C-alpha cells in the first residue's frame, strides 16, 4: 500500500510564487501541489511550507567534535549533536566539511577525517540521523599531505564537493597582513618570533605546493564527477584559474569584481548566511547583501551558525529590492542542489523528494515548526 500524507492550509513557496494550498506526499515523493485547502490532511495553520534547505559548506561538525583546543569528543555523539541542530534549523541535506591537509599546528592527524566520515556513515546506516549527510572535502592546497588525505576518500561516493583553498598570508582571504595577524598571531597568542616563523613556513609551502595540488585535485574531481569549488577568490586571475579547472561553485569571493566574473562565467556564487544576518562580513570582506542587490548572489551557506541559513533569506526578501521570498529561498534550496547535481530535491514540485519545512514567522526570526525528509517527519 502506498504511504500517503497531505499537508494543507499552507503558504507554499514555489519557484516563482507563493500559493495558499496543499501538498500531497506519496512514498516519500511530492505527488501533487494544489491551490486551496482540502478537508483531510495535516493543517499547517497558514504557515510557510518551503523546500528542505541544502547546506553546501558548514564547519559546524568540527565545533562538536573539537569543542576546545586539543579536545576530541566521541565521534558518533558529535555527529548526532551536529545533525540535530542542522535538522531543526530546516536543513534536510547537509554537506559536512572535512579538512584535508594537515595545516601547520592544526592538531589534526592523518586519518582523523576518514574516521569521522566513517562515523557519519555508520550513524546514518543505523538510523541515528535526521538529515541526509554528504561530504565536502576542504582541501588546503598549500599543505604537503593534502593529496594523501584525499586519497583516503578515493572510493567514497558520499564525496560530492571538493573546495580548493590556500590560507597562506597574501593569498585570497588574507590579502593584507592586518587580517592575518589577527587570525594567526593575536588569536593564538604567538610571539613576534613565533609568528614570523609561522608566516615563513606557510609562504614556502604555498609557493611549493599550491599550484600542483590545485591541478591534481581538479583532475581528481573531473575523473569522478565531483563538483569543484574555488574559495576566497579575490582577483580576475583567480577566477580565470577557477574557470580553467571547471569550477561550479565560487565560495566566499572577497571582491565584487571576482564575484561578478564568477557569476558571469556560470559559477554559483556562495556567501555566508551569517554575513547577511550580521549585516556584513566578520573578516571585513564584501557584504553578501550588496552582492544580492547587484544580482550576483546565487547560494547561501550557514558556515558556522546553522539557523542563519533559514534566517538570511527572509532578511533578503525584506530588504533587497527585486528579491522576493521565492528568489531568496532558492538561494538555500534549488540553486545549491542544482550546483552539485542533486536534481531530485530543492523545489516543491511533483516527482521530487518530499524534503519540506514548515516555517512560522511573526517577527524577524523565523521558527521551524516541522521538518520532513523524504516524507518522513524528522523534526
Question: Taking Cα atoms only, what radius of gyration do you get, to the nearest Å?
Answer: 21 Å
DSSP summary: helix tally: 13
Low-confidence parts lasting 5 or more residues at pLDDT below 50? none
Distance between the termini: 25 Å
- Shape designation: globular
The H-level CATH homologous superfamily, spelled out, is Metal-dependent hydrolases
How large is the share of residues in beta strands? 15-25%
**Helical percentage:** 25-40%
Number of domains: 1
CATH topology: TIM Barrel
What is the chain-wise order of helices and strands?
EEEEEEHHEHEHEHHEHEHEHHEHHHEEE
Structural class: alpha/beta
The CATH class designation is Alpha Beta
Largest sheet: 8 strands, mixed
CATH architecture level-2 label: Alpha-Beta Barrel
How many strands appear in the DSSP assignment?
16
Give a short summary of the structure.
With 379 residues, the protein is α/β, with parallel strands linked by helices. The chain is 36% helix and 25% strand.
Folded structure, characterized:
The chain has 379 residues and is an alpha/beta fold. The protein has a single domain, classed as Alpha-Beta Barrel (TIM Barrel), CATH 3.20.20.140. Helix content is 36%, strand content 25%. The strands form two sheets. Strands 1, 2, 3, 4, 5, 14, 15 and 16 form an eight-stranded mixed sheet that branches. Helix 2 packs across helix 3 (112-125) and helix 7 (236-244) packs parallel to helix 8. The longest helix has 33 residues, at 192-224. The protein starts with a strand and ends with a strand. The model has no long low-confidence stretch (mean pLDDT 91).
